[in-house]
Amino acid sequence: MLDLDLPIEDRVLERLYAYWQEKRGGRRFPARADLDPVDFAYALGWVILADVSHDPLRFYIRLYGSELAQRAGFDVTGTYLHDHPQPEFRTYVEKEWRETVERAEPTHGHFDRWVETRRYRFETVRLPLSTDGRNIDMLLIAVRHKDARRSSLAD
Known about the structure:
By secondary structure, the protein is of the alpha+beta class. The protein has one domain (about 10-150): PAS domain (Beta-Lactamase). It contains 3 helices and 6 strands. A 6-stranded antiparallel beta sheet has the order 3-2-1-6-5-4, with helices on both faces. Mean pLDDT is about 85; it is low at about 150-155.
């Protein structure tokens, strides 16, 4: 059974990861149908839901959280990742999401670099979802900017 001890610093990300763990139960991955957005309302503005298609591996951004859209200055909901307006950032994100699918387990990381004229500093957790319990068909991704860290769980 998958039991990763991710070194998550942000309390909201940590709580979302625990929720994912709870919802998968004894399975390798929970399904999207197992999740209720009301249960993680504290994180919704920071969440990305991405459909995963295979052959070739592609990511369709079904939901791009409002906090993320506000900070980025654009909303990529309803687009494919390969259409992301920032090529450098798109390359980073695709690599990280691809790793999550290929490893078939949650992944976690930190980002701190300049993209075009803007500095991005955030922590992220990428959680695989699967309808059939074997093939990852969606990613639940949460991103918390460093200036939002350690905020109360009520946000």
